[in-house]
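hi! just following up on the protien thing from before. the input was this:
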Amino acid sequence: MKIIYIPVSKKIKHTSFMNLIKCFLYDLYIIFKNFFFSKRLTNNTSGYIESALNTNAKILLLPYNFCIFFSKLLNPFFDGIFINWKFTNLRNDKNLELKLIKLSEKFNIKKIIVDTRDGAHSKINDEIIDKFDYVIKREKSKYITNKKYFTTMLPCTLVNYEISKKDEFINWNEIGNSKPNEKFKYDIFFSGQGTSKNRFEIIELIKKRNFNFYGGLENSILPYKKYLDTIYDSTINLALEGKGEFTFRHLEILASCSFMICEKSINEIELPIPLEDGKHFISFQDNNDLIEKIDFYLKNKELRYKIAAGGRQLLEEYYSPKRHGRFILNKIFN
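and the predicted 3d structure came back as:
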């Protein structure tokens, strides 16, 4: 399978001579990556889907303008073109949809949008959807019924393996923790930024209670190793909505074989791994429900252990960019 992939571009706030030069140089860098591409899983928001494609197909990375200019030459030699939603240089580009339409008119092969924006419920304009074959959406809402949409997710930041067209080997013995912790330093852990009003309310509520709480809404980010160690050292990890209903944090907690309580919105999204509420994590409906569940699970070690171990086992079984890529390409091209 031969695929053209239009990746994330250099982002600028306004057009200027110097910014245009920077964008042009970054476009050249994208092209050179075809010859010096690091065959490893990347941990940006597009990392999981990009690794999924690279493990199953021959990928040509090209910036948008090059694809438009060389479209007549490219069409006969490729099976499909995938375009990352963040392909434009300007932030909040008002011409983004017009550019997508232009691309759709230039190519007669399979055309797929890779929408890695946060927000599972957001949809793309119907005029755009009609001109593309599929949309691969980060954590698609279950309420989106259009069959052109299907789901991907963020990569797990603890996983960093060589991308191979043949075998996929992720050494889980070297990733995170394989068993739940037996000795904890803290009752509850959450460290993140104040990206939502809900986060402020929940953290303030917990701080007023007599819990051994670590973290808060920090201006500075914890060092990564300290962050992971604290996940494992905490009886309960809160996975609150941030930039999206499902974040890097959810996967980091699962990989750490740690117990996780999430907001109810996690049950409204589709993921390529079959996480189940009550089996791999616990969700809460409102603040009162959260406090009740914290009290309950702090006292129930065996149940916490079972849920934490179940989440880790599921991740080991289903976290596979290669299998995800095979599913995607079979759906699109068969």
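The chain has two domains: 2-163+321-333, 173-318.
The CA atoms of residues 115 and 290 lie 32 Å apart.
cheers
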